[in-house]
Amino acid sequence: MLKLYHWWSSTCSRRVRIALAAKQLSWESVYVNLAKFENLEPWYVELNPNGVVPTLVHDGRIVIESNFILEYLDDVWPEVPLRPEDPYERAQMRIWMDRFEHELHRNVNIISFIKQGRIKRYEHLSDQEREAAVMMQPTEPKRALLRDRLRNGISEEQMAYAEARLAEILDEVEEALADRPWINGDRMSLADCSIAPFIERFESNKLERLVDWNARPAVGAWWERMQATEAFRTAYSFKAPES
Questions:
Q1: Distance separating alpha carbons of residues 161 and 157, to the nearest angstrom
Q2: pLDDT by residue (tens digit) across 12-46?
Q3: Residue 205 carries which DSSP code?
Q4: Which of 61, 110, 90 shows the shortest CA–CA distance to 189?
Q5: Which among 92, 120, 164, 242 is least surrounded, fewest beta carbons within 10 Å?
Q6: Where are the beta strands (DSSP E) in the chain?
Q7: Which pTM does this prediction carry?
Q8: C-alpha 107: how far from its chain's center?
């Protein structure tokens, strides 16, 4: 029994859905509505103490953090491998995945908080209600981050800094793809699954300098290949539930 707690538009949910589809695995879908803060409700925090999606449950055993879920899927179902055979390339794959999660993801989040109007979820709240929303966050770092954003907002300088860091990573990916079709070689790997949803997020956030494929033609060609895969199309077939 394989169950995924996820949200249709979540980047980390999408990366896991790409891998599930690539491996042609059957699984049960359970939406956790981020717009309604279902990820912060006690029943979900009991599953995932970080209060984020996705969460994988396999035969009653819980796996959290999307990149770890990706590796778990490849360990349990190796028949369609998504990791390189070469140990060096496998190590490089993990380095990429770590960077995508801890640098790329963090800076995308800064931009998306403004570009996707997440701040609007809190604009109608009183100061007391905002603090209550902050205290719903399951960890102190998350509480401190949200409290700062609600009090001080995100400046243009912070937005520019975040976009510059994203550009740096894309430049490195461009270099990696100069002589190969996929980030770690001749076939799609977990690194490709890991970054793909963020490229789509650059597009939806209209970050034109980041999706200028004339400036990064290798990334642009890779992006076309990724979007053409059945795994990508399946992962992106999930839509918002009707209200």
A1: 6
A2: 999 999 999 999 999 999 999 998 999 999 999 99
A3: T
A4: 90
A5: 242
A6: 2-6, 28-31, 55-58, 61-64
A7: 0.94
A8: 12
